[in-house]
Amino acid sequence: MANRHAFWMLRFTSWNRFHYNARMKTVNIILMGYGRVGQAFLRMAGEKRALLEDRHDLHLQFSTILELRGALHFPRPLSPDSILKDLSLVQSFRMSQYWRPGFDLVSALDKSAPGVLVDCTPSKAGNAMPESGYLHQAFERKWHVVTANKGPLVADLRGLVSKAKQNTVALKISGATAAALPTVDVGFYSLAGTRVYRIEGILNGTTNYILTRMSGGADYRDALKEAQEKGITEPDPSLDLEGWDTAFKLLLITNTVCDTDFTLDDVKVEGIMNMPGHLIREGREPHQALKLLGIFSREQEQPYLQVKPSILDSAHPLFGVNDTNKGITFFTDTMSTVTVTGGKSDPRGAAAALLKDIINIYR
Asked: What is the dihedral of CA 144, 248, 245, 358, to 10 degrees?
């Protein structure tokens, strides 16, 4: 009897293992960019390995990590832990046996089974804004794209969405639209069926930290220096301070959620570098707060998008969003006002947004 029981237990265990393996989806990852966000994403993929496999039936493996002037390309895709063991810093890449000088994205896309391109390259603005052609190349080769880079999206969101649909692959942009703060997901999915007629957002953690410190009495230069010393700012913080990072995010959120076709030229942008003194004084008053606000409105005949330092009173849903936290309020016709806050700015939050998007592609 005991032998018979053991036989059936063995059969049951084998059946479970077979079906578990049959469900498991192995996903090839090409990681593009290995700065703070790229490194945080690789570490998080390793930390969350058990959760990804047990709950989501996903096994992530990395075939290539692209950097300037070359790439790490692995003959056999490796787990995050295997890579981090010897190659935790980009400085060690060129000493690796896997370093391939001149190895580019097209080579990486063509040498691996299609999976997900994770773009962690930095955003640029103005004439330096990158072309979106490399993302089109990924779509044409049936690769999904998950990106934290706002530049190509701002330049060509409509074209990229169209190309992804044409090739039946996904384009996910949580990492580029306030990262750890769910903005597009809430507006596009949770508010489906509503008419969003206004959006107000605190979408940049660096400027919010500086303005929070200024509301407490610090002057601009001291607050900026403190943010830099704590590693809150980018090496070049001008995109944040001049309001362009907020403008990028506002534009992408609005066009995605409201199905509009605005361009960056349609956004009136004021940053925090040369604010009038009366705003600073008002922001230090009790029950008032100075915030850099991104605003979309189609309440009047002429819709508009604007980024500007704004005084909020204590009744405003974003009044208490401080430090590096962010927040967004959607004004709708049928679900009233919906606000989401939190999602403080740091590389780990951006990495979590990228990982979330990968999970949702394969749900």
From this structure: -20
Find the helix packing angle between 133-140 and 150-166, rounded to 10°. Answer: 30
pLDDT of 12 strictly over 90: no
Containing domain of residue 111, as a range?
2-180+349-361
Of 177, 209, 180, the C-alpha closest to 321 is 209
Contact status, residue 204 vs residue 246, Cβ threshold 8 Å: yes
Count of structural domains, the chain: 2
Number of neighbouring beta carbons within 10 Å of residue 118: 30
**Ranges 17-26, 260-269, 310-319: which has the least confidence:** 17-26
The CATH number of the domain where 202 resides is what? Answer: 3.30.360.10
Classify residue 286 by its DSSP letter. Answer: T
Tell me: do 7 and 138 sit in the same domain. yes
pLDDT at residue 15 is higher than 60: no
CA distances from 194 to 108, 161, 201, 253, 335 (A): 41, 22, 18, 15, 7
What amino acid is encoded at 235 in this protein?
P
- Token pair in block for residue 80: 């995050």
CA distances from 32 to 29, 109, 122, 140, 327 (A): 9, 11, 10, 17, 28
Q: Is the pLDDT of residue 45 over 50?
A: yes
Beta strands 99-101 and 116-119, pairing class: unpaired
Q: What is the mean pLDDT of residues 78-101?
A: 88
pLDDT digits (tens, 9 = 90+) for 278-317: 999 999 999 999 999 999 999 988 999 999 999 999 999 9
User: For residue 122, what is the DSSP state?
Assistant: P
